[in-house]
Amino acid sequence: MNAGSPEPKPAKRKRRAPRSEAAPARKRAPARRRKRASAATGEIAELEDRIGYRFTEHAWLERALTHSSALAGGRDRGGSYQRLEFLGDHVLGLVVSDMLFRAFPGATEGELSRRLAALVRKETCADVARVIDLGPAMRLGNSEIQAGGHRRTAILADVCEALIGAVFSDGGYAPAAALIERYWQERMLKPPRPLRDPKTLLQEWAQARGMPAPSYKEIERSGPDHSPEFRVAVELFERTPAEGTGRSKRAAEQAAAAAMLAREGVPADAADG
Predict the structure, then answer these.
(1) Which of 14, 45, 95, 129 registers the highest number of CB atoms within 10 A of its CB?
(2) 197 classed as catalytic
(3) DSSP symbols for 167-178
(4) Is 89 tagged catalytic?
Protein backbone atom coordinates (compact mmCIF):
# COMPACT_ATOMS: atom_id res chain seq x y z
CA MET A 1 0.00 0.00 0.00
CA ASN A 2 1.35 3.45 -0.88
CA ALA A 3 2.29 5.61 2.04
CA GLY A 4 0.08 8.41 0.73
CA SER A 5 -2.99 6.23 0.28
CA PRO A 6 -5.71 6.62 2.92
CA GLU A 7 -6.30 3.58 5.02
CA PRO A 8 -9.67 1.92 4.22
CA LYS A 9 -12.22 2.07 6.94
CA PRO A 10 -13.40 -1.24 8.29
CA ALA A 11 -16.81 -2.25 6.98
CA LYS A 12 -19.63 -1.61 9.41
CA ARG A 13 -21.24 -4.74 10.76
CA LYS A 14 -25.00 -4.81 10.71
CA ARG A 15 -26.35 -4.66 14.19
CA ARG A 16 -28.62 -7.58 14.94
CA ALA A 17 -31.84 -6.55 16.53
CA PRO A 18 -32.25 -7.61 20.11
CA ARG A 19 -34.53 -10.55 20.64
CA SER A 20 -37.18 -8.22 22.01
CA GLU A 21 -37.28 -6.26 18.71
CA ALA A 22 -37.32 -9.22 16.36
CA ALA A 23 -40.59 -9.99 14.53
CA PRO A 24 -42.51 -12.62 16.45
CA ALA A 25 -42.51 -16.02 14.86
CA ARG A 26 -45.90 -17.00 13.43
CA LYS A 27 -47.44 -19.59 15.67
CA ARG A 28 -49.08 -22.58 14.09
CA ALA A 29 -52.68 -23.19 14.97
CA PRO A 30 -53.20 -26.01 17.46
CA ALA A 31 -53.34 -29.41 15.83
CA ARG A 32 -56.95 -29.93 16.87
CA ARG A 33 -58.03 -26.67 15.24
CA ARG A 34 -56.11 -27.48 12.05
CA LYS A 35 -57.78 -30.88 11.95
CA ARG A 36 -61.26 -29.35 12.33
CA ALA A 37 -60.55 -26.79 9.60
CA SER A 38 -59.30 -29.51 7.28
CA ALA A 39 -62.38 -31.64 7.94
CA ALA A 40 -64.67 -28.65 7.29
CA THR A 41 -62.88 -27.94 4.01
CA GLY A 42 -63.35 -31.56 3.01
CA GLU A 43 -67.07 -31.44 3.82
CA ILE A 44 -67.49 -28.30 1.71
CA ALA A 45 -65.70 -29.91 -1.23
CA GLU A 46 -67.88 -33.02 -0.95
CA LEU A 47 -71.00 -30.85 -0.82
CA GLU A 48 -69.89 -29.01 -3.96
CA ASP A 49 -69.39 -32.37 -5.66
CA ARG A 50 -72.92 -33.43 -4.74
CA ILE A 51 -74.57 -30.30 -6.08
CA GLY A 52 -72.32 -30.13 -9.15
CA TYR A 53 -71.12 -26.56 -8.56
CA ARG A 54 -67.82 -25.06 -7.35
CA PHE A 55 -68.11 -21.73 -5.57
CA THR A 56 -65.81 -18.87 -6.48
CA GLU A 57 -66.58 -17.15 -3.18
CA HIS A 58 -67.12 -19.75 -0.47
CA ALA A 59 -68.50 -17.08 1.85
CA TRP A 60 -71.82 -17.45 0.00
CA LEU A 61 -71.98 -21.15 0.80
CA GLU A 62 -70.92 -20.65 4.41
CA ARG A 63 -73.67 -18.09 4.91
CA ALA A 64 -76.25 -20.38 3.29
CA LEU A 65 -75.42 -23.07 5.85
CA THR A 66 -75.48 -20.78 8.91
CA HIS A 67 -78.56 -20.65 11.14
CA SER A 68 -79.10 -17.49 13.20
CA SER A 69 -78.68 -19.54 16.40
CA ALA A 70 -75.00 -20.07 15.48
CA LEU A 71 -74.24 -16.34 15.52
CA ALA A 72 -72.90 -14.54 18.57
CA GLY A 73 -75.75 -13.71 20.90
CA GLY A 74 -78.23 -15.02 18.34
CA ARG A 75 -78.19 -11.65 16.58
CA ASP A 76 -78.63 -11.84 12.85
CA ARG A 77 -77.06 -8.93 10.99
CA GLY A 78 -77.10 -10.56 7.61
CA GLY A 79 -74.74 -13.32 8.65
CA SER A 80 -77.25 -16.16 8.57
CA TYR A 81 -79.04 -17.81 5.68
CA GLN A 82 -82.25 -15.76 5.96
CA ARG A 83 -81.57 -13.24 3.18
CA LEU A 84 -80.27 -15.96 0.87
CA GLU A 85 -83.36 -18.03 1.67
CA PHE A 86 -85.53 -15.12 0.50
CA LEU A 87 -83.58 -14.90 -2.75
CA GLY A 88 -83.47 -18.66 -3.30
CA ASP A 89 -87.21 -19.00 -2.74
CA HIS A 90 -87.92 -16.63 -5.62
CA VAL A 91 -85.25 -18.11 -7.90
CA LEU A 92 -86.72 -21.57 -7.26
CA GLY A 93 -90.21 -20.33 -8.09
CA LEU A 94 -89.04 -18.74 -11.33
CA VAL A 95 -87.03 -21.74 -12.53
CA VAL A 96 -89.69 -24.31 -11.64
CA SER A 97 -92.38 -22.15 -13.28
CA ASP A 98 -90.31 -22.09 -16.47
CA MET A 99 -89.75 -25.86 -16.28
CA LEU A 100 -93.49 -26.49 -15.88
CA PHE A 101 -94.39 -24.07 -18.67
CA ARG A 102 -92.13 -25.92 -21.11
CA ALA A 103 -92.91 -29.46 -19.89
CA PHE A 104 -96.72 -29.19 -19.92
CA PRO A 105 -97.76 -27.05 -22.92
CA GLY A 106 -101.39 -28.18 -22.67
CA ALA A 107 -101.83 -27.55 -18.94
CA THR A 108 -104.14 -24.82 -17.71
CA GLU A 109 -103.00 -22.01 -15.45
CA GLY A 110 -104.71 -23.73 -12.52
CA GLU A 111 -102.95 -27.05 -13.18
CA LEU A 112 -99.59 -25.32 -13.46
CA SER A 113 -100.23 -23.44 -10.22
CA ARG A 114 -101.08 -26.65 -8.36
CA ARG A 115 -97.95 -28.36 -9.62
CA LEU A 116 -95.84 -25.33 -8.75
CA ALA A 117 -97.23 -25.21 -5.20
CA ALA A 118 -96.37 -28.89 -4.68
CA LEU A 119 -92.83 -28.49 -6.04
CA VAL A 120 -91.81 -25.39 -4.08
CA ARG A 121 -93.46 -26.29 -0.77
CA LYS A 122 -91.25 -26.66 2.28
CA GLU A 123 -91.71 -30.41 2.43
CA THR A 124 -90.31 -30.83 -1.10
CA CYS A 125 -87.39 -28.50 -0.38
CA ALA A 126 -86.64 -30.44 2.80
CA ASP A 127 -86.68 -33.71 0.84
CA VAL A 128 -84.13 -32.26 -1.58
CA ALA A 129 -82.00 -31.09 1.37
CA ARG A 130 -82.00 -34.65 2.71
CA VAL A 131 -80.98 -36.05 -0.67
CA ILE A 132 -78.11 -33.54 -0.85
CA ASP A 133 -77.35 -34.34 2.82
CA LEU A 134 -77.29 -30.71 3.94
CA GLY A 135 -78.04 -31.50 7.59
CA PRO A 136 -74.50 -32.41 8.73
CA ALA A 137 -73.04 -29.37 6.93
CA MET A 138 -75.31 -26.82 8.63
CA ARG A 139 -74.00 -24.50 11.34
CA LEU A 140 -76.40 -24.41 14.28
CA GLY A 141 -76.26 -23.03 17.80
CA ASN A 142 -76.00 -25.48 20.71
CA SER A 143 -79.66 -25.12 21.63
CA GLU A 144 -80.76 -25.84 18.07
CA ILE A 145 -78.39 -28.80 17.83
CA GLN A 146 -79.84 -30.28 21.03
CA ALA A 147 -83.34 -29.78 19.62
CA GLY A 148 -82.40 -31.77 16.52
CA GLY A 149 -82.45 -28.75 14.23
CA HIS A 150 -80.42 -30.49 11.52
CA ARG A 151 -83.38 -32.85 11.03
CA ARG A 152 -86.21 -30.29 11.20
CA THR A 153 -88.21 -29.96 8.02
CA ALA A 154 -88.54 -26.18 8.30
CA ILE A 155 -84.80 -25.58 8.74
CA LEU A 156 -83.81 -28.07 6.05
CA ALA A 157 -86.21 -26.38 3.62
CA ASP A 158 -84.85 -22.93 4.47
CA VAL A 159 -81.24 -24.02 3.98
CA CYS A 160 -82.11 -25.67 0.67
CA GLU A 161 -83.57 -22.39 -0.60
CA ALA A 162 -80.58 -20.50 0.83
CA LEU A 163 -78.24 -22.82 -1.07
CA ILE A 164 -80.04 -21.94 -4.30
CA GLY A 165 -79.70 -18.27 -3.41
CA ALA A 166 -75.99 -18.74 -2.73
CA VAL A 167 -75.37 -20.41 -6.09
CA PHE A 168 -77.32 -17.63 -7.83
CA SER A 169 -75.33 -14.94 -5.98
CA ASP A 170 -72.00 -16.59 -6.77
CA GLY A 171 -72.55 -17.73 -10.34
CA GLY A 172 -75.77 -16.23 -11.67
CA TYR A 173 -78.93 -17.72 -13.16
CA ALA A 174 -77.47 -20.58 -15.24
CA PRO A 175 -75.81 -22.60 -12.44
CA ALA A 176 -78.76 -21.98 -10.12
CA ALA A 177 -81.16 -23.25 -12.78
CA ALA A 178 -78.92 -26.27 -13.40
CA LEU A 179 -78.97 -27.11 -9.68
CA ILE A 180 -82.76 -26.87 -9.55
CA GLU A 181 -83.25 -28.95 -12.69
CA ARG A 182 -80.89 -31.58 -11.27
CA TYR A 183 -83.06 -32.17 -8.20
CA TRP A 184 -86.53 -31.08 -9.33
CA GLN A 185 -86.80 -32.50 -12.86
CA GLU A 186 -87.80 -36.01 -11.78
CA ARG A 187 -90.16 -34.66 -9.13
CA MET A 188 -91.81 -32.41 -11.69
CA LEU A 189 -92.69 -35.33 -13.97
CA LYS A 190 -94.43 -37.28 -11.20
CA PRO A 191 -98.21 -36.84 -10.83
CA PRO A 192 -98.89 -34.24 -8.11
CA ARG A 193 -99.98 -35.69 -4.79
CA PRO A 194 -103.56 -34.94 -3.80
CA LEU A 195 -103.99 -32.24 -1.19
CA ARG A 196 -104.66 -33.46 2.33
CA ASP A 197 -107.95 -32.59 3.97
CA PRO A 198 -107.94 -29.91 6.72
CA LYS A 199 -108.40 -32.39 9.59
CA THR A 200 -105.41 -34.47 8.51
CA LEU A 201 -103.39 -31.34 7.86
CA LEU A 202 -104.17 -29.86 11.28
CA GLN A 203 -103.30 -33.10 13.05
CA GLU A 204 -99.95 -33.38 11.24
CA TRP A 205 -99.22 -29.71 11.90
CA ALA A 206 -99.90 -30.20 15.62
CA GLN A 207 -97.84 -33.38 15.82
CA ALA A 208 -94.89 -31.69 14.11
CA ARG A 209 -94.88 -29.22 17.01
CA GLY A 210 -95.24 -31.77 19.77
CA MET A 211 -98.87 -30.91 20.53
CA PRO A 212 -101.62 -33.38 21.44
CA ALA A 213 -104.05 -34.28 18.66
CA PRO A 214 -106.90 -31.79 18.08
CA SER A 215 -110.28 -32.68 19.60
CA TYR A 216 -113.68 -31.94 18.06
CA LYS A 217 -116.93 -31.23 19.87
CA GLU A 218 -120.40 -30.79 18.45
CA ILE A 219 -121.84 -27.50 19.68
CA GLU A 220 -125.16 -27.32 17.89
CA ARG A 221 -127.38 -29.22 15.49
CA SER A 222 -130.14 -27.33 13.78
CA GLY A 223 -132.58 -27.67 10.88
CA PRO A 224 -134.95 -30.48 9.95
CA ASP A 225 -133.95 -34.11 10.27
CA HIS A 226 -133.73 -34.57 6.52
CA SER A 227 -131.39 -31.56 6.14
CA PRO A 228 -129.54 -30.87 9.39
CA GLU A 229 -126.75 -28.37 9.89
CA PHE A 230 -123.96 -29.00 12.38
CA ARG A 231 -121.73 -26.57 14.24
CA VAL A 232 -118.50 -28.03 15.59
CA ALA A 233 -115.59 -26.58 17.58
CA VAL A 234 -112.02 -27.83 17.37
CA GLU A 235 -109.77 -27.48 20.39
CA LEU A 236 -105.99 -27.44 20.18
CA PHE A 237 -103.30 -27.07 22.82
CA GLU A 238 -103.20 -23.49 24.19
CA ARG A 239 -105.28 -22.20 21.27
CA THR A 240 -108.69 -20.58 21.29
CA PRO A 241 -111.21 -23.06 19.81
CA ALA A 242 -112.20 -22.52 16.18
CA GLU A 243 -115.67 -23.30 14.82
CA GLY A 244 -117.08 -24.57 11.56
CA THR A 245 -120.47 -25.51 10.14
CA GLY A 246 -121.57 -28.11 7.61
CA ARG A 247 -124.40 -30.33 6.37
CA SER A 248 -122.74 -33.28 8.09
CA LYS A 249 -120.74 -33.61 11.27
CA ARG A 250 -117.65 -34.52 9.26
CA ALA A 251 -118.05 -31.49 7.00
CA ALA A 252 -118.38 -29.25 10.06
CA GLU A 253 -115.22 -30.75 11.56
CA GLN A 254 -113.36 -30.12 8.31
CA ALA A 255 -114.60 -26.51 8.29
CA ALA A 256 -113.49 -26.04 11.91
CA ALA A 257 -110.04 -27.47 11.14
CA ALA A 258 -109.74 -25.19 8.12
CA ALA A 259 -110.65 -22.20 10.28
CA MET A 260 -107.97 -23.13 12.83
CA LEU A 261 -105.35 -23.56 10.10
CA ALA A 262 -106.24 -20.22 8.55
CA ARG A 263 -106.00 -18.49 11.92
CA GLU A 264 -102.57 -20.04 12.52
CA GLY A 265 -101.41 -18.91 9.09
CA VAL A 266 -100.81 -22.45 7.82
CA PRO A 267 -101.07 -22.62 3.99
CA ALA A 268 -102.95 -25.47 2.35
CA ASP A 269 -101.06 -28.78 2.49
CA ALA A 270 -98.11 -27.41 4.44
CA ALA A 271 -98.26 -29.16 7.79
CA ASP A 272 -94.50 -29.45 8.13
CA GLY A 273 -93.81 -25.77 7.56
Answers:
(1) 129
(2) no
(3) HHHHH-HHHHHH
(4) yes
Residues 170, 226, single domain; the answer is: no
Question: Which domain CATH number covers 207?
Answer: 3.30.160.20
Q: Which residue has the higher pLDDT, 266 or 142?
A: 142
| Residue 144 or residue 28, greater confidence | 144
Q: Number of structural domains, the chain?
A: 2
Cα–Cα distance, 62 to 66 (Å, whole number):
6
Q: Is 227 within a domain?
A: yes
C-alpha distances (whole Å) from 15 to each of 8, 12, 21, 42 are 21, 9, 12, 47
> What residues contact 233, with CB distance under 8 A and at least 6 apart?
216, 217, 219, 241, 242, 243, 256
The one catalytic residue in 89, 144, 253, 269 is: 89
User: Which of 165, 189, 213 corresponds to the end of one domain?
Assistant: 189
Q: Find the catalytic residue in 85, 144, 158, 161.
A: 161
* Residue 122 DSSP label: H
Instruction: Report d(CA 29, CA 7) in Å as an integer.
Output: 54
